[in-house]
Structures are given as structure tokens and as C-alpha cells.
Amino acid sequence: MHRVPEARRDGRVVDPDQVCDAAAVLADTAQVQQAAAVLDALGDVNRLSILLALHHAGDLCVSDLAFAVGMSDSAVSHALRLLRAHGMVAAHRHGRLVRYRITGALTGRLLDVVSDGVVGDVELHAHVND
User: Fold this and answer.
1) Does residue 128 lie in a domain region?
2) Could you read off the pLDDT of 61-76 as tens digits, one per residue?
3) How far apart are CA 13 and CA 27, in angstroms?
4) CATH number of the domain bearing residue 99
């Protein structure tokens, strides 16, 4: 079954099967847009630092994240709002504190890949990713 949109079927293609495959993998535009948003968020060094800190250290509050990544509390809060909007982190209340954690399978997998090249062998006190 060809997945080339009806409106574009009159177009000239060299290999219709490959065009069909290419169109099929791009059919879920919402998922492609979500992946692009996640990759865009990872492209900022501050947001990436926040995500790596959460990925390896576990749930952290804004002030602990700010200290760990060397940013102000307000800058971390702003970055976390964007990351929450993209479904990459979630907030949960722990007593009086609001802690943040990584969410989304794509985010976790991408952070695993980035960590392989960036973090290396670091002995962690929390042993979150043992």
C-alpha cells in the first residue's frame, strides 16, 4: 500500500517504493514535531545540563539543580517550564519541596546516548542508574 498523499501522486519520483517508505516514516507529523522539540531542547547547554543532572542524580528541586549546574534559581525555573511544556520533565511535590524528574521514553533514550559520550564513568552517590 503506497502512503504517498493523493494530492502528490502525480509527482515524478524515481523509486516509488522508497518514496513510499520515506512518506510512511514521516506520516505521524505530531510525533515528528515532538521529536524535533525534544532535540531542540537538548541543543541548549543549560537545558542539557539540567536534563543530564536529573537523568543521573535523580529527582532534584530547583535550588539543588541551580547549584549543580551553576545557574540561578530563576534561570533553572524558566528552563524547567520549557522542558515541562515539551513533556521532558515532570514536577512532583515532596513535602514542601517540588522536585523534578525526567519523563518520556524518547528523552531518556536520548540522554542515555548523550551520556555515553559526555559523562563517562562517574561514580554517583545516589546510584540512580545502576
Assistant:
1) no
2) 999 999 999 999 999 9
3) 18
4) 1.10.10.10
